[in-house]
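Aim 2 progress. For Siderophore-interacting protein, the working sequence is reproduced below.
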Amino acid sequence: MGKQVRKATVLSTEQITPHLQRIVVGSDEFSDLTQAHIGCYVKVLIPQNGKVDFNLKTACMRSYTIRDIEEASGAITLDFVINMHQGPATQWAVTAKVGDNVGIAGPGPKKLDNYQHPHYVLLGDLTSVNAIKGYMQQLPASAKIDAFVHAPTAQDIINLHTQRDVTWLITNTPEADMLSALNNLTVTSEPPIVFMALEAGLVRKTKTFLTQECDIPRCNIVSSGYWKKGLNSESYKKERQQSPELA
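Predicted structure tokens for this construct:
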């Protein structure tokens, strides 16, 4: 990820679903960002006690996927999961006001780097739904795409601005329902490339299922545990720093 830290301001904030807060931030320092960066991630430097620490070594930071970019105004749209997980980012998202300052570092690259494959499987939840959106818009039109996104309520379904089919799994038991949905996955002689960004425990279970039951090579699977059940964001961040293989 680029080390540039940009000083930004909240332009708008809106709760768009029971569990998503959409915040648009702008800055004169966003002039180099284009719509090609949609789906990339940025580090949001979360204000503490109303002040932003712009030092990457000491700031409270969380990663978020860029949902949209307005090139004319230099504004980026980010969606924050709320009413599910506890932590400084969630707390800031629900209390942020227009005019508040925030730091933005990055953007960093997308996780997928192969855009010439015939088949992709995309697995996500509300924390990664905009990464799914970015890939749906970028993957080749000729490719087969199987996309599954789980959400706690039907009201959390959002527009991904794609003509592709997306299967929304409305469930409070994604550990069972995600694997059940994948039982119907058709794998050809050329295994798909998989992107998954889910709860850490579900990532491990799904990866095991895909490799053992679907014969998809591990090298075809790009995965990330965006959060972990039973841990707040700060505790999970510390765990990943101590054990990078869990990320």
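The chain has a mean pLDDT of 89. This observation will guide construct design in the next reporting period.
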